[in-house]
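// run 5 | inverse folding | seed 20
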C-alpha cells in the first residue's frame, strides 16, 4: 500500500492529475466537505428503495445497481468513488488507514484544528509481543471509536485498510514492524481479535459494521525493496505446503474468525501470477472457500503495476478484465475508472461482473450505515472530537507499550532501577529524544508525545548526550558520551532504528546496528560504574550478540516503536512500575544468516542439499541471537501440569484405508468425519515465585512426529495471566486435535500425524501419543 504514493511519485502525480480532472477534490476533502453540489450524505431525501432500512441489504443494493449507467458503475469501482449525485449519493474515499491508530497515510483521513491528533498506539509488532488477545481487541475497539468520531465531522472514512497480517518471513523486511511477527498462530489470533475490535458494534448487530477492516496484503507479500529487487515485479515462488501452512492462515483466520469486510490483494506475483489477477486465490479461496462477506480491493495501484511494471497484460482493458474476472471488486487507484468502460465495450468483461463488484462494495457501505441517512441519527452518531485522544485512550496507549516491551537480558542487580539508589542517570543515544520515530509507519498525528528522556527524567535526574547525530550514526561522539556515563550511577542507551533504516519500500541489507552504534554502546559501557541498560527501539530484530555477551551491558530491552506514550512506558519498565511480560514475536538472527540467505528465497523449510537453513523458529535450527518467545520478567514463574492426556485416539470410519493397514499410516486427513470435535483440555498451574506482581505469558508449543517435513515445533496456543507474589493460577487450553495438532502436507492437505507429539511450555515437556 501507499506504494505509488510513497515510492512511485511519478505514478502518483499521474494519478492525482488524472483524478483531479475527473474527480475534483477527492484527494483533498472528505466527501461531505467537498463541493457544494455534493450531497452531505446519501439518502438525505428521496424515497429510493435502496434507502429503505427495513429491507435486506441485498434488495437495497440490487435496486441501486440496476439504476446506474455503465459510466456511473465504473466510476464507483475505485477508491476515489464518484458517487451518483443524481441519486443523492455523495463521493466516497475508500482509502483510510488505522494500523495502530487513525492514520493520515491514506487520502481518507485528515487532521485539522477540529481534530488535531488521534491516539497513537505502539506499532503492531510491539503490541503483538504482549501476546494478549484482549489487548489486541480493545485497541481495535478504541481506534475504531476514534475513527468513527472523525468520520462524523468529515475527517475520516468508514473503510480502513488495516491490519497488515503478512508473515514476517525475513528479518530484513522493512514492513515487518507493521505485522504481528513471524508466527502464523500469533498472527492469526491478532488478525481475528483486532478485526473484531474494529468492526463489532456495541449493539451486537452482526450484519452491520462499526467500521470496515481489511486484511492485507494477500498473499506471500513480504519483500519491499531488497538490493534493487522490488515488490512490484517480485515473483514469490512458494510451495503449496508453505503457502498453506505459513502465508495463508492469517488471512483465513481474518475472514473466518474475524469476519473481516475486506481483503487486499498484493503487488507481487505468486508462482508467476499477479495476486490481483489470480482467480484461484481470489474467487476460488477468499470468495469461494472462505466465503468473504465484503469486498476485495487491490493495492494502490496494482492494476497499473500489472500492466506497466510487470507487463503481464497487453492492454489496459485486458488488465481490467483479468482482475475483475479474478474477483477484484475495488481498485485503489484510477486504472479501473479509466479503462473499465472500454473493457466492457470491447467484450473483455461482462457488465454482470461489474455489477458483482459494485454490489460487494455498496453492500459494505450499506452495512456501515452509509445509505441510512443522517449519520448523526445512527448508532455512533453522537461521537465527535471529544471522543478522540481521551485520557483513557492515551492511558491505554501507554499500557499497550508496557505490555509489549521485551526484557531480553537482565543481570542480577540491574533492573528495575530504584530511584532511591540511582540518583543520577546518563541517558545516551539517537533515540533518547525520539518523538515521531516512536510511532513507526502508517502513523497518524499523535495526541502528544512522551520521549524516553522525558519518561526517565520524571523519576530521577538525568544528563543527556545523543552520542550520534541520527540513527545512522556515521560518526559516534564517543568522548562526550563516555564523560557523562562515567559520572552517572546508571546509564540508559536508547539506540536502534527509525524509518530511514527500515520501512515500506526499504528492506535492510545488514542486521547489525547501524553505523557506529555498537562502538558507542561498547565504549560507554566500558567506563560506566553501575547498570548499563541498552534499549533498542526498532521494528525488526538485530544481531546484538556483542551486547548479549558483554558483562558490562547489564540489561537489554526491546521496545519496538512504542507509540506516543513510549517514553513513559519505557520508564515504567525500567523503574519497576511495570513488570515486563512481553515476548519476542520474531527470531533475532545473527548477521551471518542474512549474509548467507537470499531474501528472495521464499522457502520456509531448510534444504540440506544446498545448506539453506530455513526460516523462523518453526524451521530454522541454527544459532539465534534471541529466539521467538524470549522475554524475561522481574518475577520467576513456575509451571506444572495439572491435566493433559497421554494418548488421543482418532476413531476411523468403517472401511478407512488406515484401519486395515494402520501400521503404514503416518498421518490421517484432518478434515475427515472421524476428526470432528476431537478435543481435550490441557491445564497448567502457574505460580509466581518472585516478589513482584506481574503478568506471565504462557506459550504452549507442540513438536509433532517428523513426517511431511513438519515444523520442528509450532505454537499451539498462548494465554496470559496476572499473579501477585506467591500466588498461583490455572491456565487452560482447549485443544482441537485436527486444528491445533495438525500440519499441512506437501500437497497442502491438513493432516494429523500419528505417533508422539511433544507438548512444551518452557522446560516442561509432555509426550502425547496420537493413535488410530
Ligand atoms: C416516493 O416514490 C414513489 C414512487 O417511487 C412516488 O410515487 C411517491 O410520490 C414518492 N413519495 C415521496 C414522499 O416523495
Ligand atoms: C459473458 O457472459 C456470457 C454468458 O454467461 C459468456 O458466455 C461469456 O463468455 C462472458 N464473456 C466474458 C468476456 O467473460
Ligand atoms: C553490511 O555489512 C558488511 C559487513 O558485514 C559491510 O561490508 C557492508 O558495507 C554493510 N552494508 C550496509 C548496506 O550497511
Ligand atoms: C491484557 O490486556 C488487558 C487490556 O489492557 C488488561 O486489562 C489485562 O490485564 C491484560 N492481561 C494480562 C494477563 O496482563
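// decoded
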Amino acid at each position: 500500500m501507499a506504494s505509488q504514493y510513497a515510492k512511485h511519485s511519478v505514478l502518483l502525480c499521474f494519478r492525482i492529475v488524472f483524478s483531479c480532472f475527473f474527480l475534483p477534490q477527492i484527494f483533498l476533502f472528505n466527501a461531505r466537505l467537498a463541493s457544494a453540489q455534493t450531497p452531505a450524505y446519501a439518502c438525505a431525501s428521496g424515497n429510493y428503495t435502496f434507502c429503505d432500512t427495513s429491507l435486506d441489504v441485498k434488495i437495497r443494493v440490487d435496486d441501486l445497481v440496476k439504476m446506474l449507467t455503465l459510466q456511473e458503475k465504473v466510476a464507483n469501482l475505485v477508491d476515489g468513488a464518484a458517487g451518483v449525485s443524481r441519486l443523492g449519493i455523495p463521493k466516497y474515499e475508500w482509502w483510510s488507514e488505522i494500523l495502530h491508530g487513525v492514520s493520515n497515510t491514506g487520502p481518507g483521513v485528515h487532521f485539522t484544528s477540529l481534530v488535531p491528533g488521534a491516539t497513537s498506539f505502539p506499532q503492531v509488532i510491539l503490541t503483538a509481543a504482549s501476546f494478549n488477545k484482549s489487548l489486541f481487541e480493545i485497541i481495535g475497539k478504541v481506534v475504531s471509536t476514534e475513527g468513527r468520531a472523525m468520520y462524523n465531522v468529515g475527517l475520516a472514512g468508514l473503510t480502513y485498510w488495516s491490519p497488515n497480517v503478512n508473515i514476517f518471513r525475513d528479518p530484513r523486511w522493512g514492513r515487518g514492524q507493521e505485522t504481528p511477527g513471524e508466527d502464523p498462530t500469533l498472527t492469526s489470533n491478532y488478525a481475528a481479535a483486532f478485526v473484531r475490535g474494529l468492526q463489532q458494534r456495541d449493539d451486537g448487530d452482526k450484519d452491520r459494521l462499526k467500521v470496515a477492516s481489511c486484511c492485507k496484503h494477500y498473499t506471500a507479500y513480504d519483500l519491499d525493496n531488497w538490493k534493487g529487487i522490488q515488490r512490484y515485479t517480485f515473483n514469490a515462488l512458494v510451495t503449496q505446503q508453505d503457502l498453506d501452512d505459513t502465508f495463508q492462515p492469517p488471512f483465513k483466520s481474518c475472514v473466518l474468525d474475524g469476519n473481516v469486510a475486506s481483503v487486499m490483494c498484493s503487488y507481487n506475483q505468486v508462482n508467476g501470477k499477479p495476486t490481483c489477477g489470480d482467480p484461484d486465490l481470489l474467487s476460488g479461496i477468499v470468495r469461494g472457500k472462505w466465503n468473504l462477506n465484503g469486498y476485495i480491493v487491490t493495492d494502490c495501484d496494482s492494476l497499473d503495476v500489472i500492466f506497466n511494471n510487470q507487463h503481464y497484460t497487453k492492454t489496459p482493458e485486458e488488465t481490467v478484465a483479468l482482475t475483475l474476472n479474478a474477483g477484484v471488486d475495488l481498485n485503489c487507484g484510477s486504472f479501473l475508472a479509466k479503462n473499465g468502460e472500454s473493457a466492457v465495450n470491447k467484450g473483455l468483461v461482462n457488465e454482470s461482473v461489474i455489477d458483482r463488484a459494485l454490489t460487494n462494495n455498496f453492500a459494505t457501505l450499506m452495512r456501515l450505515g452509509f445509505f441510512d441517512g443522517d449519520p448523526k441519527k445512527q448508532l455512533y452518531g453522537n461521537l465527535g472530537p471529544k471522543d478522540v485522544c481521551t485520557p483513557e485512550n492515551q492511558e491505554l496507549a501507554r499500557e499497550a507499550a508496557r505490555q509489549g516491551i521485551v526484557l531480553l537480558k537482565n543481570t542480577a542487580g540491574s533492573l528495575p532501577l530504584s530511584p532511591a539508589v540511582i540518583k543520577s542517570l546518563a541517558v545516551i543515544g539517537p533515540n533518547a529524544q525520539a518523538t515521531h520515530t516512536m510511532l513507526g509507519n502508517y502513523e497518524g498525528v499523535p495526541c502528544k508525545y512522551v520521549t524516553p528522556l522525558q519518561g526517565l527524567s520524571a523519576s530521577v535526574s538525568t544528563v543527556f548526550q545523543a552520542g550520534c547525530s541520527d540513527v545512522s550514526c556515521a560518526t559516534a561522539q564517543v568522548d562526550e558520551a563516555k564523560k557523562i556515563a562515567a559520572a552517572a550511577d546508571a546509564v540508559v542507551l536508547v539506540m536502534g532504528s527509525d524509518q530511514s533504516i527500515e520501512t515500506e519500500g526499504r528492506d535492510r541489507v545488514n542486521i547489525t546496528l547501524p553505523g557506529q552504534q555498537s562502538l558507542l554502546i561498547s565504549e560507554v559501557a566500558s567506563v560506566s560504574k553501575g547498570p548499563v541498560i541498552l534499549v533498542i527501539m526498532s521494528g525488526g530484530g538485530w544481531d546484538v550478540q556483542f551486547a548479549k555477551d558483554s558483562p558490562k551491558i547489564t540489561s537489554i530491552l526491546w521496545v519496538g516503536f512504542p507509540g506516543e506514550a513510549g517514553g513513559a512506558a519505557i520508564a515504567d519498565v525500567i523503574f519497576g512500575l511495570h513488570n515486563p511480560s512481553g515476548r519476542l514475536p520474531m527470531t533475532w538472527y545473527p548477521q551471518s544468516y542474512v549474509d548467507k540467505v537470499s531474501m528472495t528465497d521464499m522457502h520456509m523449510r531448510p534444504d540440506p542439499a544446498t545448506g539453506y537453513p530455513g526460516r523462523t523458529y518453526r524451521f530454522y535450527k541454527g544459532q539465534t541471537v534471541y529466539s521467538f518467545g524470549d522475554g524475561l520478567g522481574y518475577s520467576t514463574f513456575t509451571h506444572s501440569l495439572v491435566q493433559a492426556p497421554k494418548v488421543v485416539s482418532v476413531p476411523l470410519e468403517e472401511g478407512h484405508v488406515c484401519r486395515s493397514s494402520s501400521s503404514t499410516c503416518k498421518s490421517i486427513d484432518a478434515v475427515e468425519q472421524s476428526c470432528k470435535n476431537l478435543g481435550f483440555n490441557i491445564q497448567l498451574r502457574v505460580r509466581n515465585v518472585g516478589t513482584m506482581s506481574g503478568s506471565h505469558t504462557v506459550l504452549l508449543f507442540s513438536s509433532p512426529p517428523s513426517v511431511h517435513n513438519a515444523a520442528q515445533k509450532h505454537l499451539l496456543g498462548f494465554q496470559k495471566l496476572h499473579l501477585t507474589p506467591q500466588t498461583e493460577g490455572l491456565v487452560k487450553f482447549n485443544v482441537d486435535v485436527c486444528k491445533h495438532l495438525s500440519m499441512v502436507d506437501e500437497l497442502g492437505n491438513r493432516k494429523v500425524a500419528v505417533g508422539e507429539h511433544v507438548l512444551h511450555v518452557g522446560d516442561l515437556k509432555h509426550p502425547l501419543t496420537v493413535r488410530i
